[in-house]
Design brief:
By secondary structure, the protein is mostly helical. It contains six helices and four strands, in the order αααβαββαβα. It has helices at about 20-25, 35-50, 55-70, 80-90, 115-125, 130-135; strands spanning about 75, 100-105, 110-115, 130.
Amino acid sequence: MAEDERDSGKRHLLNYGHTLGHALELATGFGLRHGEAVAIGTVFAGRLAGVLGRIDQSRVDEHLAVVGHYGLPTALPEDVDPDGLVRQMHRDKKALSGLGFVLDGPAGAELVTDVPEDAVFRALAQMPRAPLDKLIGAVTA
């Protein structure tokens, strides 16, 4: 944190899964807790990295497997509106120019800016869906 006080370099890596996570918190009226929303966002980040050709399918699948292994939610709430999620993601602090996400890639995780909306919608469409009540409470204290 001392090396990147303004959150403009390496510190972005701490935001893995947060772009969608924050949008999900708002879309569910904070029905999803932060950790639950970021877990789903992490699965989404893997899917988006796959859609963009940054990682192969086995690496995409690994995102789902790791999050699921810890008993965290891996699906989007079935009633969330993809258009609303994308609108909210445009408000994210990483959206300096277009949509921005921390994504896995050949050199590891890094900030990727100017992500095309159509790629985001494709990745959202690939996400599993579940009723919100099945996602809430997956993270225990």
